[in-house]
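In response to the reviewer comment on reproducibility (Comment 2.3), we provide here a single inverse folding case reported in full, input and output, so that an independent group could reproduce the run without further information from us. The structure tokens appear first.
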């Protein structure tokens, strides 16, 4: 064991499967006591079971590590509380939380039901709030502070068929940045990973993904939860296993002052805006075109092979 997290207590939501499982196992291998929190649901959030959380706890214990399971729904306030209490009651501290739990309910915006929207936002965005809130309340008082680690997605920029997921992932970025902003004075950092890995969640993505194994995300998560990263906060990192990238910080780019009476009229905006501040390049549309072309080529090749 190299011990990057020796003696720390870390909770991992969604720790029963995919990326979260990889992080829970890696945290334990690095010396942490681990709360494996997982509702054990299907990809669309149905049929809960405590089996997956229990299985990862058994794996950690079999390897000589310490772990406890919490099998509740992270979108509930009391479950966020239980997850943090499991660490504090068992090991006396909560040093880090990684919020990896997630579901998908894919549908075009014009067909999406209120329930599909609310469910995805509840699991992802509120599921970060419930755990961040309970953890921050302990971390701000304990010596050494702590680390909050959220899981967003490149899809926070935009998604054609997952407006609910994209909105939740954008919310997670703002929630995490707000946590970083408010908690720095207490020694608490807050960062996000936008991962890409081949899991059940990504296996139906209809375009080529730059992605490796779910375990490949764990080294960056462990680093961000470790003391070595204590000065890193309010950052968003893409991680594909082989590539890590840092995102820019949102900021105004150019501005324009009103001339007439100090406030704009519609006419003045129409006259001056296009030639002065203009609008920004939209790389997401070029990406969409590239993906549509890739999908059309793949379909044509499959049809040619079948005929
Ligand atoms: N796989 C990717 O390429 C990819 C890309 C971008 C973002 N992400 C994000 O990474 C995270 C992990 O994704 P994954 O691919 O490992 O998914 P996964 O489906 O393999 O695992 C998700 C886990 O979350 C658990 N879960 C779901 N709802 C829950 C709830 N209400 N309470 C507690 N646990 C719950 C599930 O039981 C499951 O074990 C998600 O937030 C996902 O949005 C993944």
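Designed residues, in position order:
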């Amino acid at each position: 064991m190299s011990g990057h997290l020796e003696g720390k207590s870390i909770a991992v939501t969604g720790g029963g499967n995919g990326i979260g499982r990889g992080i829970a196992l890696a945290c334990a291998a690095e010396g942490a006591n681990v709360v494996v929190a997982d509702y054990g649901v299907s990809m669309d959030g149905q049929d809960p079971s405590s089996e997956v959380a229990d299985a990862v706890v058994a794996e950690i214990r079999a390897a000589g590590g310490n772990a406890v399971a919490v099998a509740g729904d992270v979108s509930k306030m009391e479950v966020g509380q239980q997850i943090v209490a499991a660490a504090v009651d068992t090991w006396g501290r909560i040093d880090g939380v990684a919020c990896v739990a997630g579901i998908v309910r894919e549908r075009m915006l014009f067909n999406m039901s209120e329930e599909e929207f609310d469910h995805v936002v509840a699991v992802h965005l509120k599921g970060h709030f419930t755990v961040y809130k309970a953890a921050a309340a302990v971390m701000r008082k304990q010596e050494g502070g702590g680390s909050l680690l959220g899981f967003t997605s490149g899809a926070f920029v935009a998604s054609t068929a997952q407006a609910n997921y994209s909105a939740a992932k954008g919310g997670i970025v703002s929630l995490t940045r707000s946590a970083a902003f408010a908690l720095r004075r207490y020694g608490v950092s807050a960062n996000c990973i936008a991962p890409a890995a081949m899991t059940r969640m990504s296996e139906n993505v209809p375009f080529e993904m730059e992605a490796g194994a779910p375990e490949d995300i764990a080294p960056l998560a462990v680093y961000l939860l470790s003391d070595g990263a204590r000065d890193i906060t309010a950052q968003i990192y893409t991680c594909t296993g082989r590539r890590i990238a840092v995102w820019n910080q949102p900021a105004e780019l150019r501005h324009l002052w009103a001339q007439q009476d100090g406030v704009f009229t519609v006419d003045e905006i129409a006259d001056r805006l296009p030639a002065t501040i203009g609008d920004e390049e939209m790389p997401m549309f070029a990406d969409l075109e590239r993906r549509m072309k890739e999908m059309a080529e793949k379909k044509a090749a499959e049809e040619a092979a079948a005929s």
